[in-house]
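Good morning N.,

You mentioned wanting to compare the apo and holo forms, so I went ahead and generated the holo version with guanosine-5'-diphosphate-rhamnose. This is what I fed in:
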Amino acid sequence: MSKKALITGITGQDGSYLAELLLEKGYEVHGIVRRSSTFNTDRIEHIYIDPHDKDAKLFLHYGDLTDGQNLTNLVLNIEPDEIYNLGAQSHVRVSFDAPVYTVQTVAIGALNVLEAARQLNRQKPTRVYQASSSEMYGDVFETPQTEKTPFCPQSPYACAKVYAFHQTVNYRHAYDLFACNGILFNHESPRRGETFVTRKITRAATRIKLGLQEKLYLGNLDAKRDWGYAKDYVRGMWMMLQHDEPGDYVLATGETYTIRQFLDYTFEYLELDWKQYVETDPRYYRPTEVDLLLGDCSKAKNVLGWEPETSCKELAELMVDHDLELARSEALSSVQG
Ligand code: NDP
Ligand code: GDR
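and this is what came out, ligand included:
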C-alpha cells in the first residue's frame, strides 16, 4: 500500500514541487484547490493525469482553508498519512492591505487543518507539517536566527504565522499529534509568484534584455534575505515528517544578501547594468519592514541530515535561464501576432 499525502496550497510554488517529490517517492497525492473562474493549476498540469486512468496517483479536491467543515470532511474521507499545510495568503505586503483575510487563511486555516488532523488521528495516525516562516522573527533579536530565537512579527502575515506556529506546538503537546513546524527562510524558483521580489527581478531583467520592457520599479533595496531554492526546501519538509519524533526546524542557507546583490547577480548574468533600469516606487514599501533575515539550519542538518544544495547566485542564474526562455516565447508571439 502506498502512503497517502494531502497538500493544501498544492497549486502554489512549494505545493507543486512537493507534489512532484511525493509522486516520485510512490505516494498517492491529494491536493486542495480553490474554485476559481479561470484555471489556477498551471504549476501542476504536467503531473496531472485523468483520475479515471488506472495509473492516476494525483487527485484534486475543491476546498478552502477558511472552510473547516470542508477540510474535516476531506481529511476523514482521504485518511492521509501525512498532511502538508502550505496554503496561505503568502504575500507580506498584501497582508497589510487584506489583514483579516490573511489571518483567516494563515491562522484560522492552520487551526482548521489541525482540528481535522486531530479528528482523524483518533482513528488513524496522521502527521502534520505546518509551513511556518522566517518572517515570524521580524525585528532582529539575534543573527543568525535559530529555533530558539524569539519572534517579533512585523506584519499581519507574520502575526498570523506566529499564531499558527504556537497552535501547532500546542496540538503536539495537548493531543500527542505528530505535528512539525518548518521555519523556512525565503525560497525561490522559476515557479515563484511574479510579485515576489526575486521573480519580479528575473522576469523584468530578461524582458528588458529582449526589449520587451524598459523599467523595473521596486521598493526597499536594502533589506537582506537568506534565499534558497524551493526544490531543496520541500525535501526538508518531507524529511521532518519521516523522523521518529515531531519537532520544529529552521531551513535556511546561512547566507544573506541585499536586494541590490540579487539585482547584481541577475543583471550581470545578462550583461546588463541594473542601475540604468531600476527605479524606486514607494508603493512597494511596507509600513513595517523586516531588515535582516539569516538562518542557522544546524538542527535540521544534525537531526535530519538536511542541507541546502543551491547558492543564491546559482538560484538567480537558474531563474534567469528559465525566464529568458519565457521572454523569448513572448517576443516570438508578439512578432507572429
Ligand atoms: P504561494 O503563494 O506560491 O502558494 C500559496 C498556495 O496557497 C496556493 O496554492 C494558493 O492557491 C493557496 N491558497 C491561498 N489561499 C487559500 C485558501 N484560502 N484556501 C486554500 N488554499 C489557499 O506560496 P509558497 O508556495 O511560496 O509558500 C507555501 C507556504 O509556505 C505558504 O504557507 C507560505 O506562507 C509559506 N512560506 C513560504 C516561504 C517562501 O519563501 N516561499 C517561506 C516560509 C514560509 P491559489 O493558487 O488558488 O492562489
Ligand atoms: P518576503 O518576500 O516579504 O520576504 O516574504 P518578498 O519577495 O515579497 O520581499 C523580500 C524583500 O524585498 C523587498 N522588496 C520588494 N518586495 C516585493 N515583493 N516587491 C518589490 O517590488 C520589492 N522591492 C523591494 C521587500 O520590502 C522585502 O524586504 C516571502 C514570502 O514568500 C512569505 O510568504 C515568506 O513567509 C517569507 O518570504 C519568508
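The domain at 4-189+229-251 is CATH 3.40.50.720 (Rossmann fold).

Happy to go through it together on a call whenever suits you.

Best,
F.
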